[in-house]
Amino acid sequence: MGETQFGFEEELKNWLSGAKTVVVAGIGNDIRMDDFVGVKIVQDLQGKVSSKVHLIECETVPESFMDEIVELKPSHVLLVDAALLGLNPGEIRLYDSAKVVNMPTISTHMLPLRMFCDYITQMAQAKLTLLLVEPKETDFGEGLSDVVAESAGRIVDFLLKTLP
Question: N or C, which end of the chain is more exposed by having fewer CB within 10 Å?
Answer without folding.
Answer: N
